[in-house]
Design the sequence.
């Protein structure tokens, strides 16, 4: 059974600081790894999808890396803004996803 | 496109009552899934479907039924609600099996008293 862990559970940074969010998984035989954003009381929005053959994906200020051999992914958010405050979820799998519990980020103005 | 829609947004049930959570998508996606989200835990897969007429169990299927008569709709039925089913329920869909982004609905908050 795939286990996905996200550490830390919560993170608070001043505006402008770079964010580093970690995700680890136990089974390296994965199809994809996705990073989602969840705002309080809302659904999930996909940020980045890394296919198993890829090592990283970038979108604007976001960059996600994937190291299957070590079972790790890292989401980098450059120059954080208060609007980046949300919970970030990591998930692995195909159409059946295994999720981590998330990292709740607060960016202080 | 409306994307993935879910109704109701919020529901209160008494123990033993039954209800159906509705999910619909207008993107012609073959793959649809139901997850529940509990505090401090990641989302957990309840049931999924790979096309009309085809469903299967996920990680936590007990107490829930699903059916998929059309590509667009994937309702989740609670047979006899229990307090342990108090949770936020999310429906998701994707076009293909892999290499595809999953789209999530806004969720249904369920409270079972």
Sequence:
């Amino acid at each position: 059974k795939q286990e996905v862990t996200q550490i830390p559970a919560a993170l608070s940074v001043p505006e402008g600081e770079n964010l580093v969010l970690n995700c680890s998984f136990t089974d390296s035989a994965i199809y994809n790894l996705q990073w989602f954003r969840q705002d309080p009381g809302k659904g999930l929005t996909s940020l980045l999808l890394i296919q198993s053959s890829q090592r990283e994906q970038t979108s604007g200020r976001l960059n996600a890396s994937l190291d299957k051999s070590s079972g790790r992914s890292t989401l980098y958010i450059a120059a954080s803004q208060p609007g980046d405050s949300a919970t970030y979820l990591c998930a692995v799998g195909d159409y059946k996803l295994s999720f981590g519990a998330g990292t709740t980020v607060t960016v202080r103005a | 496109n409306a994307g993935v829609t879910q109704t109701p947004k919020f529901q209160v049930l008494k123990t033993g009552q039954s209800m159906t959570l509705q999910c619909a998508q207008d993107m012609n996606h073959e793959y649809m899934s139901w997850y529940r989200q509990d505090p401090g835990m990641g989302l957990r897969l309840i049931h999924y479907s790979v096309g009309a007429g085809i469903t299967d169990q996920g990680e936590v299927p007990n107490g829930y039924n699903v059916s998929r008569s059309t590509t667009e709709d994937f309702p989740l039925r609670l047979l006899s609600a229990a307090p342990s089913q108090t949770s936020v329920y999310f429906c998701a869909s994707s076009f293909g099996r892999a290499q595809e982004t999953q789209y999530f609905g806004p969720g249904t908050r369920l409270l079972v008293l």
Observations:
- Chain B has a mean pLDDT of 94.
